[in-house]
């Protein structure tokens, strides 16, 4: 016999948790179907363990910097078991009992299993059926996209899931894909002592960001010993069967990566970090529309795929960020409660947590010009400030993009230590359309990194006044 609920949510990740919290006390009954762990990708295999891994490497880099700034001698040995244990602890030891209990404490019913949307009102879990009286929410996320490369299926490779939960430290690692995931994990492993090669098929790494971001970050990655091979796609992969003369035999995971140029990259471990794809198996058979790239097609404002069916989080293709998934869950919960809430994607912050961080929001200069906007641009280097010198930071970037006609900020990219922490001001400015002359008049604390914003915003405001 089918169980009936007002709302059935396919996926118990961040969006599902936000929906449960948002519906608490509303009188609406909610069932959340989760096939893995409550909380989704981020706390167990994504943001939390990977940033914990990055933090471990950052502390070693800071210890090394102490030789220049504060100490005549600093010695350490990388303790892989210690790092592994802390990463696993931060990832809740892959135990979701507490998040599951918190979800159920909202009044939601948690159902474990592989849910499939049989029709726009029915979710099947094996022989069991859940019927949604009011709405179904699809929030079952995404997974690593693995390209069709000859020989890839013959080698043992990692995706971000295996790399984020540190089990061993390979002597060398080749990384396919130099987007945020690839460069974050690449830098983390390099700072722990692994020899890392980043391989990017496109003409620039961090291709979704302003070119100035990659240009500034490159010198820092290379200073960590990372080799970058950009614009040279992988065309084949094979196992490395034999070691070099006089050296021990390679591990079972050892690979040879063949690039289009003819170059070869040999490594003990291969990490595939070539993007994400939607988890479509749970809803593809219900006849819902998909975008050209296969994501669930929703109205960006209402998040409806069709009447009574919502999408939230990664699965929509509107952005693969934990903070965006949570926001989507809040919007959907409000709409289910009868509130005309609408999602606004004009100022979604993005942060790549390398050292230095790459933080951005809004439109790039190229994207703004493609929309026919008459842009004005200001550039600066946060390293050339008092805080930059104090911090012993070299080679950052700040790029601000304004709309000349409206006199407002529409895009920002910032490369410096802790850039993500200072981005909030720019997110709010873009979301609310704060005039540039008002932004230029803001008093910022000295000698914080965000002092660099004042001069650059003033430059944009001055360009408007000259017009």
Helix content: 25-40%
Distance between the termini: 71 Å
CATH class division of the largest domain: Alpha Beta
Assigned CATH superfamily of the largest domain: FAD/NAD(P)-binding domain
CATH topology of the largest domain: FAD/NAD(P)-binding domain
The class by helix and strand makeup works out as alpha/beta
Integer-rounded radius of gyration: 24 Å
Task: Estimate the global geometry from the Cα principal axes.
Answer: globular
Written overview of the protein:
The chain is α/β, with parallel strands linked by helices and 467 residues long. It has 3 domains: 3-39 and 96-144 and 276-336, FAD/NAD(P)-binding domain (3-Layer(bba) Sandwich); 152-272, FAD/NAD(P)-binding domain (3-Layer(bba) Sandwich); 350-466, Enolase-like, domain 1. The chain contains 15 helices and 22 strands. The protein has helices spanning 14-23, 41-45, 47-69, 80-90, 97-105, 160-164, 180-191, 211-223, 322-336, 365-370, 386-391, 419-422, 424-432, 436-440, 451-466; strands at residues 3-10, 30-34, 109-112, 115-119, 122-125, 128-138, 142-144, 172-176, 195-200, 227-230, 234-239, 255-259, 264-267, 269-272, 276-278, 304-306, 309-311, 350-352, 357-362, 375-380, 397-403, 408-416. Strands 1, 2, 3, 4, 5, 6, 16 and 17 form an 8-stranded mixed β-sheet that branches. A hairpin with a 4-residue loop joins strand 12 and strand 13. Helix 3 packs across helix 4 (80-90). The chain starts with a strand and ends with a helix.
């Amino acid at each position: 016999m089918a169980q009936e609920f007002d709302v059935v949510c396919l996926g118990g990740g961040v969006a599902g948790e936000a929906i449960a919290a948002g519906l608490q006390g509303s009188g609406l009954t909610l069932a959340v179907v989760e096939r893995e762990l409550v909380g989704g990708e981020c706390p167990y295999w994504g943001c939390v363990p990977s940033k914990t891994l990055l933090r471990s490497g950052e502390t070693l880099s800071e210890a090394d910097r102490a030789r220049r700034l504060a100490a005549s001698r600093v010695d350490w040995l990388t303790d892989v078991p210690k790092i592994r244990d802390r990463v696993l602890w931060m990832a809740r030891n892959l135990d979701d009992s507490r998040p599951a209990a918190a979800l159920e404490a909202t009044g939601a019913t948690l159902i474990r299993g592989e849910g499939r949307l049989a029709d726009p009102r029915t979710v099947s879990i094996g022989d069991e059926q859940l019927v949604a009286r009011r709405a179904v929410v699809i929030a079952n996320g995404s997974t690593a996209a693995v390209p069709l490369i000859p020989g890839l299926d013959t080698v043992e490779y990692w995706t971000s899931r295996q790399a984020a939960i540190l089990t061993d430290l390979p002597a060398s690692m080749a990384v396919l894909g130099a987007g945020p995931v690839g460069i974050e994990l690449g830098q983390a492993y390099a700072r722990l002592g692994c020899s890392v090669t980043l391989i990017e098929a496109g003409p620039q790494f961090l291709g979704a960001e302003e070119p100035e971001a990659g240009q500034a970050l490159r010198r820092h990655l290379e200073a960590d010993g990372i080799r970058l091979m950009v614009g040279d796609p992988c065309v084949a992969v094979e196992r490395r069967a034999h070691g070099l003369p006089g050296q021990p035999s390679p591990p079972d995971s050892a690979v040879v990566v063949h690039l289009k140029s003819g170059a070869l990259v040999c490594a003990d471990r291969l990490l595939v970090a070539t993007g994400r794809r939607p988890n479509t198996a749970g809803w593809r058979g219900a006849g819902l529309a998909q975008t050209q790239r296969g994501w669930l097609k929703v109205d960006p404002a209402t998040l409806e795929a069709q009447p009574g069916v919502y999408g939230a989080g990664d699965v929509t293709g509107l952005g693969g960020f934990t903070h965006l998934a949570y926001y989507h869950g809040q919007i959907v919960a409000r709409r289910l409660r009868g509130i005309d809430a609408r999602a606004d994607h004009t100022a979604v912050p993005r942060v790549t947590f390398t050292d230095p961080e790459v933080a951005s929001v809004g439109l790039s200069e190229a994207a703004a010009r493609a929309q026919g906007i008459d842009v004005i641009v200001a550039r600066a280097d946060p390293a050339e400030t008092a805080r930059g010198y104090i911090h012993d930071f070299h080679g950052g970037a700040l790029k601000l993009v304004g709309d000349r006609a409206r006199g407002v900020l529409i895009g920002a990219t910032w490369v410096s230590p802790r850039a993500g922490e200072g981005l909030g001001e720019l997110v709010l400015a873009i979301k609310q359309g704060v005039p540039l002359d008002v932004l230029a008049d803001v008093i910022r604390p000295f000698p914080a990194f965000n002092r660099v914003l004042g001069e650059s915003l003033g430059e944009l405001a001055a360009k408007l006044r000259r017009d």
